[in-house]
Amino acid sequence: MQLGYTILYVPDVPATLKFYEAAFGLTTRFLHESGDYGELETGSTALAFSTHRLMQQLGKNPQAASPTAPCFEIALCTPDVAAALERAIAAGATPMRLLEVMPWGQTIAYVADINGFLVELCTPMG
Fold it and tell me: H or E segment at 9?
């Protein structure tokens, strides 16, 4: 078994893809012509987005994300967390936790994306 993609439910998929391109330097891999589903190129596992409207049509009850009460986080690895944090904030991300070196040596910072999802910016482990 292999993780293929993670789908986050958002109000506006095209706006979210544009934000992730500007904030984190990711590129859009796919956007459905309806604008209800899109994917970012992130390596072997895609980060995908689907509209709340589409999920409601499929019988799901999507909830808005809350960066102060998250149920998960997205972790994006980079060798330069400080530069990544600066870029994300300049693109409209909300700073949640500024640059910090953890006891195990990893450098981290947290932002909230435009939809309220918590995003960790971190150096790779090991």
Answer: strand 5-10
- pLDDT computed for residue 43 by the predictor: 87
Residue 110: phi, psi to the nearest 5?
Answer: -130, 140
| pLDDT for res 76 | 97
Strands (E), 32-93: 37-41, 46-51, 74-77
Task: Give the C-alpha separation, 101 to 21, whole Å.
Answer: 26
Give the distance, in angstroms, between the CA of residue 114 and the centroid of all CA atoms in the same chain. Answer: 9
Q: Which residues of the chain have pLDDT under 50?
A: none
Is there a contact between 2 and 111 (Cβ–Cβ < 8 Å)?
no
Closest CA to 76 of 106, 121, 16, 123: 121
pTM (two decimals): 0.94
